[in-house]
Amino acid sequence: MAQCRLIWFFTSLLCVVAVVNASAGDTDPLYKTCVEQCEKTGCVGNKCFQHCKFSSDGNPIDGPWYLQEPLYQRWKEWDCRSDCRYYCMLAREEEREKLGHSPVKYHGKWPFRRVYGIQEPVSVALSALNLAVQFHSWVSFFILVNYKLPLKQNKMTYYEYTSLLHVYGLLSMNSWFWSAVFHSRDVDLTEKLDYSSAVALLGFGLILAILRAFNVRDEAARVMVAAPLIAFVTTHILYLNFYQLDYGLNMKVCLGMGVAQLLIWAVWAGVSHHPSRWKLWLVVVGTGLATLLDIYDFPPYRSFVDAHALWHATTIPLSYLWWSFFRDDAEFRTMALIKKAK
User: Fold this and answer.
1) 29, 73, 172, 289: which could form a disulfide with 134 (CB 3.0–4.6 Å)?
2) What is the C-alpha separation between 103 and 298, in angstroms, rounded?
3) What is the mean pLDDT, run by run of 10 residues, along the chain of 342 residues?
4) Smallest Cα–Cα separation from 311: which of 326, 292, 327, 339?
5) 214, 251 Cβ separation under 8 angstroms
6) H helices of 158-218, where?
7) Which of 195, 311, 296 is closest to 253 using CA atoms?
């Protein structure tokens, strides 16, 4: 049961958790009044916004808002409502702090302070570091199988899962890239791209787990395994993007695929005699423990570092360990096949 709990904790984080529509902060009457007044006057205290000034026909007086912002901020789509909510949140949190109250969530998110227009700077930085680790690990794997290990006469690698891991590496980097973008600016487009990339990575991870654990090497058999899973994941991504962004359904899909692949890896590590199977156990247990940070979900320290940011930090060494297993696996399989050929 303990192992199942760890698996549940880990997979629940592989997709972004649904944002709560009504949080304690945005239902606060003082906060709501502040936002309403800001949208009418364009000011929160002494802070005023040009893009909140409208003419009688509803158009901004000084032209479109994206022509009024500094160049580096235009892509972030800060509009009147976004700025009103942000500065009203800061003002309300300052008042709550003076009264000795702890921070509360607004529109499903903790009150973070922007840095150069970036919504969650620490999570963005850690997502970028995860992206760098994935890139470094993927390149290390590529160099190992193509230049350090022996090759077949046709210059192909002995390791049967090389191409699969190349795809996995690209999907991982894509997922962390959109994670950084999403934490930089949470809008509908970046949210969907973050969700979609996470689902794609999780789905391909399940394919990889099945093919490696069951040692599926025949191309026709691989297609039979991968085709229905690819079709399912593609359909789910299209559903989320073009029909309805159903957080509950997405959570169930992610949970199902995550539990399936982690169970496969855990059982395979238990029954196989792979010399690096202990690394798989460390990844499973480590990610389970790390996810406890997100379950605890404490307010951001100094308005920058929250539990989810720390979870991003823990995935850095775990990702390195994960790729380390596959480098070991490539060496193990290559040596075994060369010895068999002799």
Assistant:
1) 172
2) 9
3) 45 44 71 84 80 54 49 57 84 84 81 84 93 97 95 90 96 96 87 94 95 92 95 95 88 86 89 91 82 73 82 91 96 90 70
4) 292
5) no
6) 162-184, 188-213
7) 195
